[in-house]
C-alpha cells in the first residue's frame, strides 16, 4: 500500500463529525512507513482542509466527489466544472420544485438565504408521508450544513447565474423519499452531469467526467503509484468509483451490505475507529510477511 484514500463522513469522521485520536495516529503511522494519504470527500476543499488542519493531518485532497484534486501542499491539480447551460437548467429546476441546495466552487459554498425555512417545509411534507421520520434529523441536518466552511448566502438564483465563478458541484437535499427518488431519477441520465448519492437524504450533480475514482486514479498517476498499490476506504455509494479503481477496497462496518459485497476488505464502524483498525491490521500483515520472508 503506497497510497491510502479515505472518505470523511461515516468513515474517518465519527458520529460527532470528529477525527479520533486513534485515526490520526494511524494515518501518521502509515505516513511514517512511506504511505501517501488522501482525503476523498463530497465536502468542499475549504471544509476538508479545515478538518485536516484541526486534526493535524497533512493529506492530498479530492473534494466535491472528485470534481477537484489538491496536493498536500495545497496546489490545485485538477478541476472539473459544471457548464453554464447545465448549471442554469438544474438551478431553475431546484427553485421551481423548492429543494434545498448547495452550490460549490473550490473556495465557497453557496446556500439560499432562507435555508432553514426550505428545510422545515420539506420536513413537514416528509413527516406527513412518513410519520416514523425522527424529529431530530431536521436539527441535525441544519447543524451539519451550517458547520461547513466558506458559506455564502444568496438571495436569488441570479446571484449564481450572473456570476463568473466556476462551479463544481450541486447538492440537493430532501427528507421525503418520493422527492429524493424523483430528483435522483431525473439526473441519473442527464447528458452533461453525473449524479451521486453521498447520504440518505441527498443527491449531487457533478461534471460527467468527475468521480472520486477518476480523481483517485489521476492522483495515483501524479504520484507515480500503480493502482494495485492504492487502498480506498469508505461507507457510501459515492465511494464505489474508488473501490473499482483501487487495488485494495475497504468498506466500513457501518456501510450498507451492497457496498460491503463490492469490497475486498471490511473494517469496523466509524465510531470504532474503522480507519485505524484497517491500517493497523494491514501494517501488521506486512510485518508478518517481512518476518517470514
TrEMBL record:
PROSITE patterns named in the record: COF_1, COF_2
InterPro entries: Cof (IPR000150), HAD-like_sf (IPR036412), HAD-SF_hydro_IIB (IPR006379), HAD_sf (IPR023214)
Any single Pfam family the record assigns to this protein: Hydrolase_3
Matching Gene3D superfamilies: 3.30.1240.10, HAD superfamily/HAD-like
GO cellular component: cytosol
Molecular functions per Gene Ontology: magnesium ion binding; phosphatase activity
CDD domains registered for this protein in UniProt: HAD_Pase (cd07516)
Cited SUPFAM superfamilies: HAD-like (SSF56784)
TM regions (residue ranges): none
Record-given protein name: HAD family phosphatase
Organism: Clostridium aciditolerans
Amino acid at each position: 500500500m503506497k497510497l491510502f484514500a479515505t472518505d470523511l463522513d461515516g468513515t474517518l469522521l465519527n458520529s460527532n463529525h470528529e477525527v479520533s485520536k486513534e485515526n490520526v495516529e494511524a494515518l501518521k503511522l502509515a505516513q511514517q512507513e512511506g504511505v501517501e494519504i488522501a482525503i476523498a470527500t463530497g465536502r468542499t476543499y475549504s471544509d476538508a482542509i479545515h478538518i485536516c488542519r484541526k486534526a493535524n493531518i497533512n493529506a492530498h485532497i479530492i473534494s466535491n466527489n472528485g470534481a477537484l484534486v489538491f496536493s498536500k501542499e495545497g496546489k490545485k491539480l485538477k478541476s472539473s466544472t459544471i457548464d453554464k447551460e447545465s448549471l442554469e437548467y438544474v438551478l431553475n429546476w431546484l427553485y421551481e420544485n423548492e429543494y434545498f441546495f448547495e452550490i460549490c466552487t473550490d473556495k465557497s459554498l453557496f446556500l439560499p438565504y432562507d435555508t432553514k425555512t426550505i428545510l422545515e417545509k420539506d420536513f413537514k411534507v416528509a413527516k406527513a408521508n412518513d410519520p416514523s421520520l425522527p424529529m431530530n434529523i431536521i436539527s441535525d441536518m441544519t447543524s451539519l450544513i451550517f458547520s461547513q466552511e466558506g458559506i455564502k448566502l444568496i438571495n436569488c438564483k441570479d446571484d449564481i447565474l450572473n456570476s463568473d465563478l466556476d462551479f463544481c458541484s450541486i447538492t440537493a437535499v430532501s427528507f421525503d423519499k418520493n422527492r429524493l427518488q424523483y430528483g435522483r431519477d431525473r439526473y441519473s441520465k442527464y447528458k452533461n452531469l453525473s449524479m451521486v448519492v453521498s447520504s440518505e437524504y441527498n443527491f449531487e450533480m457533478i461534471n460527467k467526467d468527475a468521480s472520486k475514482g477518476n480523481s483517485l486514479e489521476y492522483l495515483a498517476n501524479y504520484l507515480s503509484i500503480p493502482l494495485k498499490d492504492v487502498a480506498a476506504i469508505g461507507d457510501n455509494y459515492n465511494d464505489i468509483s474508488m473501490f473499482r479503481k483501487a487495488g485494495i477496497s475497504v468498506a466500513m462496518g457501518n456501510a450498507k451490505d451492497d457496498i460491503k459485497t463490492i469490497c475486498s476488505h471490511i473494517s469496523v464502524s466509524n465510531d470504532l475507529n474503522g480507519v485505524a483498525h484497517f491500517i493497523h491490521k494491514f501494517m501488521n500483515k506486512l510485518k508478518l510477511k517481512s518476518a517470514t520472508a
